[in-house]
Design goal:
This is Response regulator receiver domain-containing protein. By secondary structure, the protein is of the alpha/beta class. The chain has a single domain, classed as Response regulator (Rossmann fold), CATH 3.40.50.2300. The protein is built from five helices and five strands; from the N terminus they run E-H-E-H-E-H-E-H-E-H. Strand 1, helix 1 and strand 2 form a beta-alpha-beta unit.
């Protein structure tokens, strides 16, 4: 059975790219903003990993991650943050809740896939 990844991004080109590089190995759930993603999670869905853009309409990536981490239920779910922000490292350092990995757009697909595998492996080790 494929692992499930929640992808939250408002850029169609990024969604298409992620679908192209990840859909053979993972079951992708696509949401175009943080509000839709939170609604999906509140319906009782439990992804194995979350990939989120930082800059999105309605609820930005930082607020989305904060909501995940304070919920308790998704506190340990691995999160990979994507952003086109020039000062991404500074933004991530100042966030009160951590992302497991972060990538500046455009990102290297091979590095992203490796980070996903590593995050899922580490999550499995910690929870088994």
């Amino acid at each position: 059975m494929k692992r499930q990844i929640l992808v939250v991004d408002d850029e169609l080109s990024i969604l298409k790219l992620l679908n192209f590089i990840l859909s053979k190995e993972y079951n992708l759930i696509i949401k175009q903003n943080g509000a839709d993603a939170i609604s999906w999670l509140e319906d009782g869905n439990d992804p194995d990993l979350i990939i989120s853009d930082l800059e999105m309409p309605y609820i930005d990536g930082g607020s989305f991650i904060r909501n995940l981490k304070i919920s308790g239920f998704y506190r340990d779910t691995p999160v990979i943050l994507l952003s086109g922000a020039d000062n991404l490292e500074t933004i991530v350092e100042q966030m009160p809740y951590r992302a497991d990995y972060f990538f500046k757009k455009p990102f290297n697909p091979t590095e992203l896939k490796l980070s996903i595998s590593t995050a899922l492996y580490q999550y499995d080790l910690a929870n088994n």
